[in-house]
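ARCHIVE CARD
Drawer: 12
Card no.: 0347
Subject: one protein chain, sequence and derived structure
Cross-reference: see card 0346
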Amino acid sequence: MLWQQKTNLVSYSTLPHLWTRHIADSLQLLDHAPKDARVWIDFGSGGGFPAIPIACALAAKAGAMVHLVESNSKKAAFLREAVRVTGAPARVHAERVENFVESYGDKVDVVSARALAPLKTLCDQAFPLIARGAVGLFPKGQDVEVELTEAAKYWMIEASTAPSKTSPEGCVVVVRGLRRLDR
């Protein structure tokens, strides 16, 4: 609660529903990841969702590592403390997503982002990782069709949607392939 007061990690209105609104919502991404997924990159990790619950869930898997990319230094400090306290297999990268992706050369199985940006922007940012074989897992709300339509103006998207287990109006967009459209 102390970090929440200092840094506004999640909306105050969601605190009474922390388990379903944030933790269970994060953990449902595991159902859409490849079975052997070990390396995750989470963009805009902010309050630690979905990255920290995912890292905790993967803790027993050999070679598991979740990379939390967060440009806000206060939130990155919180994330470092959360990783320390949980002992989760995770690393915090206090930098912009674009810079991280440009310099990251290791294998990645999944790239995720929750409540960070519209799907078109996530495709722009995740493309280098998805092009190398990663699966994109992006929880979205009721405007998912609008976001898919906008992204399709710029990208040929190999994607599916799965209903959210925690929100009747939400879904998870699963991106398995991206190709830029010539404009």
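Annotation on reverse: The first helix runs from residue 2 to 7. The domain at 2-139 is CATH 3.40.50.150 (Rossmann fold).
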